[in-house]
Specification:
about 120 residues, mainly alpha, about 90% helix
């Protein structure tokens, strides 16, 4: 396999993994918005696991470059790195949204408990 083919295969692996992660993070936010926090937690775990796969693939390329091996940088790999960073940001934001939704649901529950 050529260096370019190896780089492209790794890029596709990164894109697939972090795309899954981002979808899981969005599902986690949606679940939390409806008060389904156990489901949100499962989605976050699935997202973190998928993200880790993409991150490991990316780290492999960094290791190759650090060893002085040539890593072909092209539009596809640039896109993969962009998607990796995007998924990481979604994960961070999803955690914040879930925390916020938790607080909102707890506050609503406390208000309803005092109203009765």
């Amino acid at each position: 396999m050529s260096e370019l083919e190896n780089s492209q295969l790794t890029a596709f692996n990164i894109i697939a993994a972090v795309g899954t992660a981002r979808s899981c993070y969005i599902s986690a936010i949606d679940a939390a918005a409806q008060g389904r926090f156990d489901e949100a937690g499962r989605n976050m775990k699935e997202g973190r696991d998928a993200f880790e796969q993409g991150h490991e693939a990316h780290a492999g390329l960094l290791t190759e470059a650090a060893r002085g091996e040539k890593v072909e940088m092209d539009l596809l790999l640039t896109h993969a790195e962009d998607q990796l960073m995007s998924a990481e940001a979604f994960g961070i934001l999803a955690e914040r949204f879930i925390t916020l939704y938790h607080k909102m649901f707890d506050q609503k529950q406390n208000t309803e408990d005092h109203a009765v």
